[in-house]
Design goal:
35% of the residues lie in helices and 19% in strands. The chain has 280 residues and is of the alpha/beta class. It has a seven-stranded parallel β-sheet with strand order 8-7-6-11-9-12-10, with helices on both faces. The protein has a five-stranded mixed β-sheet with strand order 1-4-3-5-2. β7, α7 and β8 form a beta-alpha-beta unit. 38% of the residues are buried.
């Protein structure tokens, strides 16, 4: 295959993107959209299926005729840089998960207003700065029936390598967008959403409260791992919501809490749909 290029010089300029900090990748083509790095064959395939453009691959030699063979076949004109796992670890500074990386071009995300217009159940993330949590929340949102995810600029980038990997590529399957407004909650309320803040409060209602299931449009609002949601955000939300706990546990990690919340606000509709289908 003519696009397979063995690496002999670790300082080759075309390999620089695999060593750059992710903030630099974000701005790589400014003023145009930048790059991100997708990792593992399954994740890369999901990005390709979603229409993202690959610029190059970096992989261990063993994967050329192995797990990555079908991806290479889909991208015959994209250069594939390859070497042993030892050399690649020296280049990137870490051992490659599943042995395959792909530098891909970012693209314009949907406008939040357009995204909300066709959504009934969304997640809003505020100050969630850990990419592992962002990726896990997005994976849960996709798996458990949420329609979209909105991310404030203070959150970790959903296209950071670790966030993508933890999401298992579902970041390419569920619509998401940055929400760059002064009051994200009031923005959603103006669009007809009821807003439910996940937080500890004596006045909080249970995530199982029927009022949440009955809302025509509902946004689950999730805050940072340490400080939680801003006081102004809590004040602006229609409801403060908590998950009932046992054994004197007061809270869950934000990613775990998101999964419980997403399931609770969507499973009733899922059960109704199943019942309807069984009656046909």
């Amino acid at each position: 295959m003519s696009n397979i290029i063995p690496i002999t010089n670790l300082s080759a300029p075309e390999l620089a993107v695999y060593c750059l900090p992710e903030t630099q990748l974000f701005h790589y083509f400014e003023p145009k959209k930048g790059l991100f790095i997708a990792e593992s064959p399954k994740v890369i395939e999901r990005a390709l299926d979603a229409g993202y453009t690959p610029f190059s691959f970096l992989m261990e030699e063993i994967h050329i005729a192995g797990e990555a063979a079908h991806i290479i076949a889909r991208c015959p004109d994209v250069p594939v840089y390859t070497a042993s796992s030892r050399i690649l670890a020296e280049l990137t500074g870490f051992h490659l998960t599943r042995g395959v990386l792909c530098a891909m071009g970012r693209r314009q995300q949907p406008e939040p207003r357009e995204l909300c217009a066709c959504s009934r159940r969304i997640a809003l993330l505020e100050h969630v700065m850990n990419p592992t949590n962002v990726g896990a929340i997005i994976r849960s949102a996709a798996a458990l029936g949420m329609d979209a995810v909105l991310v404030t600029p203070s959150c970790s980038d959903p296209l950071y390598r670790r966030a993508i990997r933890v999401s298992m590529g579902t970041v390419f399957q569920i619509p998401w967008a940055y929400l760059k407004v002064e009051s994200p909650v009031n923005f959603l309320k103006e669009l007809g959403f009821k807003t439910a803040a996940m937080a500890l409060s004596p006045k909080a209602i249970s995530i199982a409260d029927p009022v949440l299931k009955e809302a025509d449009k509902l946004a689950i609002v999730l805050g940072s791992e340490g400080e939680g949601l801003e006081a102004s955000t809590l004040a602006d939300c229609d409801y403060t919501v908590t998950i009932p706990m046992y054994h004197r546990v007061d809270s869950l990690n934000v990613a775990a809490a998101s999964a419980v919340a997403f399931w609770e606000v969507r499973h009733y509709e899922f059960l109704v749909l199943q019942k309807s289908l069984r009656s046909l």
